[in-house]
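User: Please fill in residues for this 296-position structure.
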């Protein structure tokens, strides 16, 4: 796999609306679910929460042949037999997804490494947690009624601590309080934060952005954090040391992130705190990152 390629793995329940089928599985079991999928094999599935995101990711491959390419891989707990309906739907929508792993109920996260995945998106929380433990960026796609972004470019927003960065600063706030957090961040302003689980995702996006003039990039990124001054300085200097560009940085000082994410027009937002993620999902598609001190 070329090192500059961005590889995103997605579960079938994040890509398509399988809510009815999942309810059937939970109520009547695996045999009933598989029988239903086979009986409806030619019925096209409705787009799921992450479907518009996947469309925009794959559309990046049409912007410039010189830019790093994007690959989307399906990782599904379906069997190959019941998964045929999913591939039929992929073909119907013209999605350029050609690689997949169907595990027939087994956890699929073990295929993240051999596929060279940078980011794993799933509706199955335990698969996400196991991928994070193994050292890969992963997020649980939360239920959302948010409409698709109105912007033509791909817009991705990240929380900072425990997502882009390690949770080292968040641990101070969690264990010692907000005043001690600000004191610590002021003292360590010139010491870069360690990378969190999504650092490599941001780096991969930056490599694609670097192939375009800043004013015409097909990707726009944002840092949306509860931090405020003076704790903003360490974040800015850390990103500078990493050599990456964040297009917009919002330091909200504890304000609700949802309206700001809606104003940015995020195609997806990643946050480690479940409460924040659930609130944001009312405004934009959101992935919960169960990592760090907020997720014991």
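Assistant: Residues filled in for all 296 positions:
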């Amino acid at each position: 796999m070329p090192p500059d390629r961005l590889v995103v793995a997605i579960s079938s329940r994040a890509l398509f609306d399988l809510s009815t089928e999942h309810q059937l599985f939970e109520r009547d079991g695996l045999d009933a679910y598989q029988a239903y999928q086979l009986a409806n094999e030619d019925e096209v599935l409705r787009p799921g929460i992450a479907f518009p995101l996947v469309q925009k990711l794959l559309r990046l491959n049409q912007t410039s042949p010189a830019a790093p390419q994007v690959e989307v891989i399906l990782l599904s707990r379906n069997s190959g037999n019941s998964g045929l309906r999913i591939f039929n739907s992929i073909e119907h929508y013209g999605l350029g997804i050609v690689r997949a792993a169907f595990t027939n109920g087994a956890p699929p996260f073990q295929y993240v490494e051999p596929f060279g995945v940078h980011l794993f998106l799933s509706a199955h929380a335990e698969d996400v947690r196991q991928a994070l433990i193994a050292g890969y960026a992963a997020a649980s796609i939360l239920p959302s009624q948010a409409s698709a972004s109105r912007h033509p470019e791909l817009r991705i927003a990240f929380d900072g601590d425990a997502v882009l960065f390690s949770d080292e600063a968040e641990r101070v706030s969690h264990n010692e309080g907000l005043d001690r957090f600000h004191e610590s961040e002021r003292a360590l302003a010139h010491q870069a934060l360690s990378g969190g689980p999504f650092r490599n995702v941001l780096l991969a996006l930056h490599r694609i952005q670097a192939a375009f003039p800043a004013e015409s990039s097909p990707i726009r990124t944002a840092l949306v954090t509860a931090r405020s001054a003076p704790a903003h300085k360490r974040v800015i200097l850390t990103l500078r040391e990493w050599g990456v560009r964040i297009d917009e940085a919002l330091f909200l000082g504890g304000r609700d992130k949802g309206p700001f994410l809606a104003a940015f027009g995020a195609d997806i937002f990643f946050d480690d705190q479940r409460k924040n993620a659930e609130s944001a999902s009312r405004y934009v598609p959101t992935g919960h990152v169960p990592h760090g001190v907020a997720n014991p």
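For context: DSSP finds twelve helices and ten strands in the chain.
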